[in-house]
Amino acid sequence: SVPAVPAVVGAQLRVPLVTGGSAEYANLDHGASAPCLNAVRDAVNELLPWYASVHRGAGFASQVCTRVYEGARETLRRFVGARRTDSVIFTRNTTDALNLLAAALPADTSVVVFDTEHHAALLPWAGERVHHLGIPESPQEAVRLLDAALAECADGPKLAVLTGASNVTGELWPVAELARVAREHGARTVLDAAQLAPHRPVRIADLGVDHAVLSGHKLYAPFGAGALVGRDDWLDRAEPYLAGGGATRSVPDAGEIDWNTGPERHEAGSPNTVGVHALAKACEVLAEHAEAIEGHEDLLLRRLRAGLATVPGLRELGLFGPEHDRVGVVSFTVDGQDPGLLAAALSAEHGIGVRDGLFCAHRAVRHLLAGTDAQRAVRISLGLGTTVEHVDRIVTALRGLVAHGPQWSYELDGGRWVP
Ligand code: PMP
C-alpha cells in the first residue's frame, strides 16, 4: 500500500470538463509549483495576526516576526544538512539565489556548467571564464567532463554548477562524485536543489557541496521565498546584492558606507516574513516525513512508468538510461502526437494538469528530442497530492487519446491548444 504523506490544500478540488460534468483535479505538475501543505497554511494563518516588520520594530509583534524570520535560517540550515558555519540568505526563489551567488563571485572566477541545467542555473554566469561542459550520456561521463574542464581552467577561483535532480527527466546526478572532483581541483560547488529537495533529503555537508539553492514554491510553500545556503566568505566580500535599508551598519554624511556582513548584507528591504515562515514550516514537515514521502513517490512512479510503457509510441526522455535512479518526474513524447494537444486534452477532458514545452531547459530538451519529429515534450511530475487514481487516470487517458484522438475539437491560440 502507498504510505500516507502530509496533506495538501485543494487535494479534492473539482474542475469542469468540456465533455460535461467535472472531475477531481489531478495535479500532475508538481514540478512547476507544488500545492500548499495544510500544515503550511495553518502556520501562515497562525502568524498573520502577528504580522509586522522584521528587525525594525520594538513592538511585540515585530519581536515575534523577527524571531520567526531568524529562526527559519536555522531550519533551512538543518534541512539542507549544512555546516554550522554556513549562512542562510533568503531570496525570492532559486533563480534569485543563483543570480545573487553569480553577482558575489570573486573577480576572475571560472565557472563550469553543464548544458543540461535549468536556465536559472545555466544563464546567470557571464564572461569569458564560463565553460560549458556539454551534455553527458552517463553519470561517469559527467564526472569525466567536469574533471577535464576544471583541469583546463585558468588559475584563480573556480565554481562548478551542479544539479541534484533534473526538472525534465527527474534523473539524479552524481553530486557527491562531482563535488569530490571539484574539490580535487580546488573548485567550489553550488547545488541547484530546486527539484531534489521536494523529493529526497539534501545533505550538503555530507556531499561536500559549498552552496545550495532552492525554492519554496516547489517545496509546498507557495509564498515566494527561496534560499541560498552555504559558505559566507565570498558573500561577505561581495557588493551587496541590493542596496538599501538593513544592508548597512551606518551611512555617514560623506565617505564610505559601512555595509553589514552576514545575510543582512544581501537582504536589503523589508523581507518576505510570511514566505520565509511558510518555507521553514514546509522544510520541517518534509524532513519529518522524508521516508514516507520517498516511499509514496517510489510506488506511484513505478506504477506510472509501468503504465506509460503500455502507451503505444510513448518514449520517455532520459540521459542516463531507464534504470537510473530518478525522482517522480517523467517527460515523454508520443510518436505522431502533438504534445501541446495531448496536454490540452488531458486537462479539458480528464481534469489532469501536466506541463508541455521545453521546461526552461531548452538545450537539455532539444538534445533529448534530437532525431525525433517532436519540438516539445509532455511532463508528468508527481508529488504529495498525487494518488493511485491520478496515475491510473492519466495512463488510461493517454491510451485513449493515442488510440482515438481527443473527443473534443481544439484550435491553436497563441501557440496553445484551446478547446
Ligand atoms: N532549477 C530547477 C531544477 C528547477 O526545477 C527550477 C524551477 N522549475 C529552477 C531551477 C528555478 O526555480 P524558480 O523558478 O523557483 O526560480
TrEMBL record:
Query: GO: which molecular function terms?
Result: transaminase activity
What cofactor is this protein dependent on? pyridoxal 5'-phosphate
InterPro entries attached here? Aminotrans_V_dom, PyrdxlP-dep_Trfase, PyrdxlP-dep_Trfase_major, PyrdxlP-dep_Trfase_small
Q: Which residue ranges traverse the bilayer? A: none
User: Sorted alphabetically, which keywords does the UniProt record give?
Assistant: Aminotransferase, Pyridoxal phosphate, Transferase
Where does the record place the Aminotransferase class V domain?
A: 27-393
List the SUPFAM superfamilies.
PLP-dependent transferases (SSF53383)
Q: What is this protein called?
A: Aminotransferase class V-fold PLP-dependent enzyme
Q: Which organism is it from?
A: Saccharopolyspora gregorii
